[in-house]
Design a protein that fits this description.
Blueprint lengths: L2 H11 L2 E8 L2 E8 L1 E3 L4 E7 L3 H8 L2 E6 L8 E10 L8 H7 L3 H8 L3 E7 L2 E7 L2 E6 L1
Antiparallel strand pairs: 1-2, 1-5, 3-4, 4-7, 5-6, 6-7, 6-8, 8-9
Helix pairs in contact: 3-4
Length: about 140
């Protein structure tokens, strides 16, 4: 089983990550929609400017995440990386978000100008397909 192929499959098909941030030695986890752009090796997610994760990431850009399976399996990707506010806007990735996440096109149309786009970069990821198939991929 090729773990890089499995990584790409999971990043393409899973829509949400549990994103962990930490500020003032206090961890915080929340669920966010995401897209992964393989050509860039980056995850993108959007949030409102007044969301607490904005200040948490500003204080400490180190994050970790795990994808969330919704197909009844335990297959997922975990990684540690760095989150920063993107120089791009949600509108540049609107088609990718809408193709992956049902109804997200309506969200972007309604409040896209209020959303900040963030990107997560990471060098390696742990991929778990099932109890017998797991490994680490280098990006």
């Amino acid at each position: 089983m090729n773990m890089t192929d499995e990584f790409l499959r999971l990043m393409r098909t899973q829509r949400e990550i549990a994103l962990a941030t930490s500020a003032d030695n206090t961890p915080h986890v929340r669920i966010v929609n995401f897209i992964y752009v393989p050509e860039e090796g980056r995850i993108y997610f959007a949030t409102f400017a007044d969301n607490t994760k904005v200040s948490e990431i500003a204080a400490n850009p180190a994050v970790s995440f795990t994808t969330i399976p919704h197909d009844g399996s335990t297959a997922h990707v975990r990684a540690v990386g760095r989150a920063v506010r993107s120089e791009r806007s949600i509108f540049e990735y609107a088609d990718a978000f809408a193709a992956k996440i049902p109804g997200y096109d309506e969200t972007i149309a309604a409040v896209g100008s209020e959303l900040l786009l963030y990107e997560i970069t990471f060098d390696t990821a742990a991929v778990t397909v099932d109890m017998e198939h797991s490994g680490t991929v280098c990006l």
